[in-house]
Amino acid sequence: MEHRIEKNDEGVSPVIAVILMVAITVVLAAVLYVWAASFLEQGDSAPIATFIVSEDSANVYHVNVVKVSKQENLEDFSFFLKDESGYTYLGGNGFGEIAMQIIDGEATGIDETYDGDDADLQSRADNITADDGSTFPVHFRDNDRDGKL
């Protein structure tokens, strides 16, 4: 029996085929990664504020804003109070959370917005009046006197 070797030029080398398959897989994985990563993009994070809450002898709560994680103009801050259940504070024995936000536009409900435009503002105190008539002073102090909180 005689063995004959014939040259076959019609096929692709197995080495080249493996390289092509790996290249196509890597490109496809990169495209899918970029596409999936677009769903994970997040906007700017909200500033985190540190507060000190105290009650004076007349049972009035005073809220002092001590520090905010992002420096913003002091007149741009607004705030609102929430009760323990997360609803806007309406009075009672205390509140569970003080939320502060930077907003443009009109104040609604218990929200309070500073209307001043004093670039040299160093201290500001606003009062929140709840539906039951109780008042909570909120103090903002620019300790380093740069016009930002």
Q: How would you portray this structure in words?
A:
This protein is an alpha+beta fold. A four-stranded mixed β-sheet has the order 1-2-7-6, with no helix packed on it. It has a three-stranded antiparallel β-sheet with strand order 4-3-5, with no helix packed on it. Mean pLDDT is 62; it is low at 89-122. It has one helix and seven strands; from the N terminus they run H-E-E-E-E-E-E-E. The chain has one helix spanning 14-37, and strands at residues 49-55, 61-68, 77-82, 97-102, 112-113, 123-129, 135-141. It has a domain at 49-141. The longest helix has 24 residues, at 14-37. The chain crosses the membrane at residues 12-36.
Secondary structure: elements and pairs:
Elements: H1 14-37, E1 49-55, E2 61-68, E3 77-82, E4 97-102, E5 112-113, E6 123-129, E7 135-141
Parallel strand pairs: 2-7
Antiparallel strand pairs: 1-2, 3-4, 3-5, 6-7
Which parts are unreliable, with pLDDT below 50 for 5 consecutive residues or more? 89-122
Name the beta content range.
25-35%
Q: In what order do the strands lie side by side in the largest sheet?
A: 1-2-7-6
Number of strands: 7
Order of helical and strand elements: HEEEEEEE
Compute the number of helices.
Answer: 1
Overall residue-averaged pLDDT value: 62
Summarize the biggest pleated sheet: 4 strands, mixed
Distance between the termini: 95 Å
Q: Helix/strand-derived class? A: alpha+beta
The 3D shape can be described as rod-shaped
Proportion of helical residues? 10-25%
> C-alpha Rg, in Å?
31 Å
